[in-house]
## 1
Amino acid sequence: AEAGRMADDTYESVLCVKPEVHVYKIPPRATNRGYRASEWKLDEPAWSGRMKITAKAKIAYIKLEDKNTGELFAQAPVEQYPGSAVEAVTDSSRYFVVRIEDGNGRHAFIGIGFADRGDSFDFNVALQDHFKWVKQESELAKQEAIQSAAPKLDLGFKEGQTIKISLGNIKKKDAAGGVKSRPGASGLLPPPPGGKGGILPPPGGLQATPSPPAAAPAQPNTGLLLDFGGPPAPAQPSQELWGDFAAAGSGTTQESVKPGWVQF
């Protein structure tokens, strides 16, 4: 009873809907050669309406309903396809024999047919796809059961267990990579710190000779100018300032120094 309630609560999906289908009364099967639609009264269908194929869990249901009201005319549960619940006729692809049930254990076989060949193709494919899915689900469930029954591997480390990893290849790669020069390296030394725009030292260890400091500008000496008619200068030029030049001149000439000139 509990399993039945669970089945009733299962979601029911719609697989296929066809707006027009015909139902025929069929004669009993005389031999095992199969049903033939040519033996039915195809121009006098017993009922016409809408067909809907639904699925609830693994079972598919072929439902024949009224076109206008949707009232259920007959229902055929299908647990396997191909199987005894749905069988194709031997002389046409548009007609099938379906076993309908009333829910009280009674069943009957009726013939159904489609005016369009495409509708019969969709009917056939919808049932095939559903039971293909059912088969795949069953195989997956079996595999999961086998995996759950198999002993699980314990890949964890035991207490005190260690593992050793060899890094020989990594060392070789590092050694080989150390020989290679770094990209962008050159023979020029970087400039000294803090020296923005400084002059690089000359190559070969030569040192530049510093230039002598600039001499202070000489003060104008009025004693060097000639007296052109003006009053004579009140003071003679200092002998200490020009002493070196005078000493150099004294060794070569004994001429007296004229007023207003310095002896060179």
## 2
Amino acid sequence: MTMQHMHVDPLILISDLSGLIEQPPTSIEILPGGLEEWQVPELPSGAVQPNVKFPFVYFEGNLGIPKKVLYRLYMAAVNVPRSSPLYPQASTIILVANPAHQTALNSRKRLIQTGVLSPQKELTFTELLIRGDNEWAKQSIVWHHRRWIFGVLYGEMSSTGGCACTDERNLFPRIPPFTLRAEFQLIRGACESYPRNYHAWAHWHAVVKGVCCVAHSGEFLSETDSQAYIGVVISEGLQLREWLNTHVSDYSAMYQLLNLALTLKDVQVLANGQSQNSELLECNLLALQAAELAERYPLHQSLWLYLRVLCDRMKMEDREGIVERLRQWTSSEHIHLSMLNIK
């Protein structure tokens, strides 16, 4: 069944689908096939039956869009002029089908600046995209779009303060701690659905560095504010430490955890003696964890590379203790053990 045979104006369907997404649904999923494949009696009781006027699957707040239907609507949406009142809805469909469509993302930035679109709803929309499909989760410009929205919502932190930050971090918005925790959870979910997601980890890195810069800022009325942000960083570091136990091939995660551990050395002076278990993020304890994982999963080269970098940042006596433990477990001629470059 083609769009012409549907006898439904695709612009009406674009408006309907955009309205559903704006509600928003609990999740969005692109379904294989077209309308015909989903006009079946096996749908759960209570699900909206797809039809010509509503060619989508909608059940308990979960929205499924047949791929053939989506791409027919996409072809109509890309031909909607950006000056049209329908363009905000059309750009929604464009990004669902093609999250790397930079023109649509830039147009939505302008619509946010002019008050046509809500920045908070835009955050929700991009979160739905990221959670919905690997193709969305791995797009660098989608993550950059989220950082831009955070700046609109929370403003830009001034460059004053006691921390020498890059320009990017000087302009990092002061995002509330509970929002940061949710953002980190979203990132880990994206890296779970699309392993070794470089762009998601790059976003993680930018957020962590920004939070640390906020913690160094002299703009706070009380030290309690600084402690809250440091607590977010430490909590996320501990979460990432646990993550490595089940993601032993994710070198991007290992690299980010190491950077976080080194960064904490700079911000920990603000912790006022409250370690909040941050000692688990010291290089010697991270190396001990890496050694234990290397014993269990010796064929994962990423673990040995990670361990080597950690050892380079440890005191000689601590480093020798790690290597001696590994030598007791395996031959001193083991190809990966030799990567540690210690005699």
## 3
Amino acid sequence: MELIKNYLIASRCHANLGVLNYFSIGIAASYIENGGIFNYKICFFTLLVCIFINNIGFLMNSYLDYIFNVDSNSTIDKTLFGITSIKSLLNYILFSISMVFLIVFLIIPNQFPDLNNQVYKMIIIYSMTTLIMALIYNFFKYIALGSFAVSFVYFLNYMIAFNVNSNCSTLFQNNFFNPVNLYAIYIIMAGFQINHGNNHRDYDEDKKAGILTLSIIFGKKLSLLIFNSISIMVCLWSLFLVNYLKNFYFLSVLFIIPKITKLWISTNDGNTKLLNAKASDIHLTACPFIVFSILMSS
């Protein structure tokens, strides 16, 4: 039990709530677009793949930050210290990668022999792409691409959920203003804001370590403005969907405004601790309303 507990802590298992939410948006979009279909069994296995890959991203980031002396016993992000060892961390990474390959190349083809060949190829491509992104994310953050990489992975989690449940293999809908594409815009904004909040929180430590994040490029003041502006963009996005899709249920997303206001006031007062967690909290609140709004659409 202690081993499992340490694995969950080291892999930041709480972050998988975000994966679950964005995956749920993909399923909800698919459910409405394809006449009420919910292939829960294969969705469950693909969700597990997304969760293990998300774990790999955090584990690899901790490992490489330790190797490159970015993290120490005195830094904010102290995954290794007092929790696990380098050897255990590598074993966690190996276990997670093994689970991804086991599910993708053994369990899914055996449990779903009638699965459309193109859809199965899509599962392999999406899974291997997100796995590679998780493994090399640490290098993206050194060249100010970390937030874009995270957004792309969240987008793929959304699309794999949509495609698996829809039994299709299209990455983008032909019409940009197709609802499926419009919902994806939120996923991209959420992923970007959460990671950008993390970078802003680590501004001083990243600068010392030679990590070039967007926060460092823009400076603290403009970086914080970008962070807070994304929350406003989410509200504008929901209002656009109310008008464009004639779906007034998207007004429910505006229930996040009190949290946005509170966060904006606290950051302007100089409180920038745990920005990534605070952004995650906003999106964990927004996602159920988004899923509800999609399911209530005609």
## 4
Amino acid sequence: MKFEKGLNTATLLSNEVKWRQVALLERDILLKNLKSVLESLRGQVAGKFKDEIEESVSMVDILAVQLSKRENELLQQKTEVTRIATSLKLASEDARTIVDEERANARTEIENARAAVQRVQQVLKDKENCSQRIGKQAMDIKNEIHVLRDQFAEMSSSSARLLKELELHQRFEENDAPSYELEGLESLGSMLRLVVQNNVSLSNASVQWFRIQPQGSKTEIISGATKLVYAPEPHDVGRYLQAEVNLGGEISVAKTAGPVDPAAGLVDYVETLVRNPETEYNLCGVRGGGDAAPQAMFWQPRKDLSFVLGFETARERNSAIMLARRFAIDCNIILAGPGDKTPW
């Protein structure tokens, strides 16, 4: 646009120079005619009038010389204006060519960018669809795992019940029928309950729970486990549990059919808590009834003082026990109770 404006200006200047040149030509013709008239009159008059005519002729000659100079200047201006107009015209054409090329390049770049954006959008859409499919597959796998866990728990319970019935049958055949047995799932996060096979009151009985190594039958007393119910803790995993009942001096024993099974995902959960030291536990205190045992933890800071801490879930209770043992081992602290020095 600037080049075209300059070109228009140069054209106007060229036209103005032409008009001035035409005007000068007309003046030149008028002066020549005037000089001819004056020269014809000069031969016809004398005296004062002849002197005035001579002066007029001189003035006409001076004007002719000035007009000649002015004409030369106009010719030079015309030449310069013509040169400028030619240069501006060439520059305008070059600029128009450059602008057209840049516009074409810009259109090409815009089309390429639009195509790239469309490809990226398509890739993101494909990834989103793939993520949705993977999420659905993960959810299906998670549901299958839950189903398998429930089936495994049911099979474990059935297996434990069958083992107990087999043991009872064997003892019955040996005429040594037990007075007590343990009810409940033999796994971490569950609760075991000591029940009587006949109508025997346990109000005056004392109970103590033990853990037994699967090899060697080494027995360890469990501190604070003196109730009819007991919730296995992480240190019991892989070991048998045994309840000893002392009623009127007669001691009876009830034992689990197999080692305590671990809780799925508990170790990974504890490692996550270790990496996040700002995790807080919600202690609930003792909640009524023996059904709260899987969420409760026995704590004895000294011999004459003990507490039962209640957690919201069995998972939190078991992870708290594991963390306490882990930090105690790291700080070379021995926790109260047999076997608590053993790393979990």
